[in-house]
């Protein structure tokens, strides 16, 4: 953490008892990590209630809670809390259901008696928000003043006579429906997690009163269980209380810690030694950064060092983008995505980013060298870019600044996506909202998705748009699907008036079905684009008749090669006719 910054800190009180029953089939747990996990994943608490009709109720509850608390912290730090939590709960539910199906009877009645079935309610506190996951009839609530505000709804149906049955539970079906709620938090907020044995025996006001009167959170949890038992509860009793003590700032500095306080690296010269690297030469000078080819003096390997420009050396947004770049690289491991240098990250005295060196040329240079590329070569380049993007999308990352300048091609034809300063990362957006909000830079409008320029959030479809424009750009020798007009289309109405220019107008040898695939990828409306990168790359190599609506005449559809071939065949036919029909010969 930077000097004076604060971390997320909480106080937790818990208590559980069998109550009037012979066995306690409730289970609860919490995990408050430190270091990076505290920042990127937060604090997690979970509570579960095994169904009383099952002999394995206690085992089910323990499995659900322990699996959530362990597996949640094994998910990518780039994932959003929702994606991480829902994936973990779904996987646990699937495993429990499989166990019930494989080892137990298949009837609902028998499964209830012998199956792994329970409720599960969990809360993750990350940055300045609480993320709630809920299946069943436990409850997550919050103390507001002197009252209790329920934040979840019980999943149950009435069976008459004051009896209820669970409508949703872990392990019952292969797929489980999970309620998800996100709420903002403030220091002093107090959350209360209870199994139904407590909140069915006590009113919300009674629960709030008991908690407020207690000296400690552990005392409050114990007092709730005692009060519910005294009120006639015949169920197991479990209570968890979580109070927010301090919150982080909600900025990128929460993630990068002390590095945020480092001074920006200065401009460097060839031959200079700097923080364990020797500068070989300058590769690029831009408005926001200087890029150098360097050699690691420890390993001897070449690397690329990026430092902020003089103009932006004190701009927080630009410095955040620079810090984000290496963070993204260190969480990716894909042959088509730029990697950090091998080995652990070293302590630094200045702020800069270092990546592996790709020996080759940028895609814009390649396009200039190949104004009429082979179709299969274009398909291969697009496929590799799509493969790298897919790896990023699976980690809930959207590149947002995909353009030929940010794609490298080495001597073997391997493609590498570079420059992650504009990347939107779901997990970081939760931590520091708006980190990537202003990170699209001047000069990229022709490749950035139209919705981004209207202030909408970028999505995977935004990257698909950029990839479609790149494919168009390669096939037309540097043209764009909407020409220069897109730059001036700054309203939805103006964007709707834009018309896609068929590739075949510039490159008539490109098949109409391939043009149709690119047109779909480049659709102005993101809902009209491909939803999957694999669909796009498949349609580039295989005609999708559903996309081709070519109404041009045969004369208009014919390519130059088509007409040359037809003319040659007609000439041959004419010569043969003359040779076989002397009466047609010229007199």
Automatic annotation (TrEMBL):
Q: Which CDD domains match?
A: PP2Cc, STKc_PknB_like
Q: Name one GO molecular function term.
A: ATP binding
Q: What is this protein called?
A: Protein kinase
InterPro entries referenced in this protein's UniProt entry, alphabetically: Kinase-like_dom_sf, PPM-type-like_dom_sf, PPM-type_phosphatase-like_dom, Prot_kinase_dom, Tyr_kinase_AS, Tyr_kinase_cat_dom
User: Where does the record place the region Disordered?
Assistant: 1-30
Domain (PPM-type phosphatase): give its ranges. Answer: 11-244
| Keywords noted in UniProt | ATP-binding, Kinase, Nucleotide-binding, Serine/threonine-protein kinase, Transferase
Q: Which Gene3D superfamilies match?
A: Phosphorylase Kinase, domain 1, PPM-type phosphatase domain, Transferase(Phosphotransferase) domain 1
Query: Species lineage, top-down?
Result: Bacteria, Pseudomonadati, Pseudomonadota, Alphaproteobacteria, Sphingomonadales
Question: Where in this chain does the record put each Protein kinase domain?
Answer: 277-545
> Which species does the entry assign this protein to?
Croceicoccus naphthovorans
